[in-house]
Design brief:
Structural class: alpha/beta
Radius of gyration: 21 Å
Shape: globular
Strand order of the largest sheet: 9-8-10-14-17-18
Helix content: 25-40%
Largest sheet: 6 strands, mixed
Number of strands: 18
Strand content: 15-25%
Length: 491
């Protein structure tokens, strides 16, 4: 494997905000002036939300300013996109390449532990120029990284930077923003595990699944989602994601479902209990290939003693809807049983902070306010990606709050096609990185739209329209993959 280093960090230019953006053309409807989030304060039982009017004012410049990531994404979409090389197969590593980006704190022991995975990928690629290891230098932006190696936004050049990129390290060394920006045009995943033994277990599981040495799982999509008293957010997620998932297979993707023998099972509402999820992970009720969960993630104050271990943990139907959340009403990393059977499973966790937590808040109302002492990957997916009995293949989740408007803004139908496609891609044997293609495109396109809406002299736009664009952009851009983006279920 060729090894390439970044000799120096390159800072991105600062983006100043112009406060002359137009005012709203219409007043916000008070009935719509609350954006429910899929998060619950574990220590008080309070549900998190955003206020439409305050968000709109912040976006227009009364508070906050556009961040560098948003400006960067908008610039990417404005660049003429040449896309993939002509005739290249995006699923072929021989065409598209595979690479690893080592965080600066990664010890040699971790690199050695992942050697079986790197050797497996090298054999698939068949060309050392397309199988590359990079050493990341802190402070290097996504675009600076690409340009340093002969690529840039707007055209994928696998001979310079492979299409599949595995980031290895913590978000303190390899920021979430770097992963999200690269993921718009490339297929990107991350591993941030506890120790070399955990990395070795993950590498072994991927090789065993892809070479047929691991027992095949049931070709089942299992959807899990609780509802709670007087909680419109979970009522929406259960309706548009959990209960809708069998329809995706029976109607939208019927030919694919028939071809690959895919079926669905559902645990929704009061059935979505902690014990039910335990049974799924133990294989008591079959061994689904893909687990989709939708509901609230636990939220903690910055610096809480429980934050690192439980933030993003899944709230189950056992919660009474009003009290502080105890261990009997949530599913956290510590609840993953020693006898769990998750080897080769893929999961998509739709919840606030389901994949991780940034150090500071992305809401324009609270720009720069601390969310945690430092950015971190959520403990639950880390536990599943390093389980001693065999690890999960990949985990999709959100790094930030998730908002109800990302599923269904007021006045329009459900906007869940990107989520349905995120589910179907792994089930038909696509490499995991393909699952986020639609969400990444939505995030980048809406970033450009939002930047256009806020530019000086832009036509007036109503508060609810402006916030709808922001909410869907933020949610789409916040989904990441934990695991190797080239991993796939054997078909």
């Amino acid at each position: 494997m060729d090894v390439r280093d970044d000799p120096e960090a390159t800072a991105s230019p600062a983006h100043a905000r112009d406060d002359s953006a137009p005012a709203s053309s219409t007043a916000a409807d008070p009935a719509l002036d609350d954006l429910a989030c899929f998060g619950v304060d574990a220590e008080t039982g309070g549900r998190t939300s955003e206020r439409l009017g305050e968000l709109a004012a912040a976006l227009r410049g009364a508070q906050g300013r556009p961040d560098a990531e948003l400006s960067q994404l908008g610039a990417m979409v404005a660049t003429p996109a040449f896309g993939l090389p002509p005739g290249a197969d995006p699923e072929s590593l021989a065409d598209m390449g595979w690479g690893v980006i080592w965080g600066p704190s990664i010890p040699q022991e971790v690199k050695d532990a992942l050697r079986p995975l790197l050797d497996h990928r090298r054999a698939e690629v068949g060309d050392d120029d397309l199988c590359v290891a990079f050493d990341h230098v802190p402070g290097t932006t996504a675009r600076a990284f690409l340009q340093r190696h002969g690529a840039d936004f707007g055209s994928v050049r696998p001979e310079c930077v492979p299409y599949y990129l595995l980031l290895v390290g913590s978000p303190a060394d390899l920021p979430f923003a770097l992963q999200s920006a690269l993921d718009v045009e490339y297929r990107v995943g991350r591993l941030d595990l506890a120790d070399p033994a955990a990395y070795a277990r993950y590498a072994r599981a991927v090789v065993e699944v892809e070479t047929g040495l691991a027992p095949a799982r049931d070709r089942v999509l299992h959807a899990f989602g609780p509802t709670h008293l007087a909680d419109p957010a979970t009522a929406l997620s259960v309706e548009t994601l959990v209960r809708a998932s069998p329809t995706w297979l029976a109607q939208a993707f019927k030919k694919l479902a028939d071809r690959f023998g895919l079926t669905a099972s559902v645990a929704a509402g009061d059935d979505a209990t902690r014990e039910r999820l335990l049974a799924v992970l133990r294989g008591v009720e079959g061994r689904p290939e893909l687990l989709l969960t939708a509901g609230h993630g636990l939220v903690f104050a910055p610096g809480s003693a429980r934050q690192a271990a439980e933030q993003g943990a899944l709230l189950t139907a056992d919660w009474d809807g009003v009290s502080a959340v105890d261990e009997h009403a949530r599913f956290a990393a510590s609840d993953v049983p020693d006898d769990a059977d998750v080897r080769g499973m893929v999961a998509l966790l739709f919840a606030c902070y389901g994949a991780g937590t940034p150090a500071t808040d992305s809401s324009p109302r609270r720009a720069g306010q601390a969310l945690a002492p430092g950015p971190f990957v959520a403990a639950l997916p880390r536990a599943l990606l390093s389980h001693p009995c065999g690890t999960a293949l990949g985990m999709f989740g959100h790094v930030d709050r998730t908002l109800a408007w990302s599923l269904q803004p007021p006045g329009v139908g459900a906007q869940t096609t990107p989520f349905a496609r995120a589910v179907i891609h792994p089930l038909i044997g696509s490499r995991l990185g393909a699952a986020l293609d639609d969400l990444n495109q939505r995030g980048a396109t809406l970033a450009s739209t939002l930047a256009s809406n806020l530019r000086p002299g832009a036509p007036p736009i109503a508060d609810d329209e402006l916030v709808q664009v922001w909410a869907q952009q933020r949610d789409a851009a916040g989904f990441i993959l934990l695991g190797d983006p080239a991993a796939r279920l054997r078909r």
